[in-house]
Amino acid sequence: MLNSYAKSFNKAYNRTGKLFQLPFKRIPVENENYFKVLVAYSLKQVSE
After folding, report:
1. Cis peptide before 23 (omega within 30 of 0)
2. In whole angstroms, how far apart are CA 29 and each of 24, 25, 26, 44?
């Protein structure tokens, strides 16, 4: 599923390669307050 999404995204924007290339990194969210900040930030980005 993600592979087909990447292909269609790349075709639409004339790109090649992976969508999340380096320096993409993940870190675990182990603190509830930090999680709340992340959710608020994400919702703010969607509404703008």
Report:
1. yes
2. 16, 13, 9, 19
Burial 5-29 (b: 16+ CB within 10 A, else e): eeeeeeeeeeeeeeeeeeeeeeeee
| Average pLDDT, 10 consecutive residues per value, the chain (48 residues) | 81 85 80 95 80
For the whole model, what pTM was predicted?
0.45
Amino acid at 32: E
**What 3-state DSSP class applies to 7?**
helix
Residues 6+ positions from 35 with CB-CB distance below 8 Å: 29
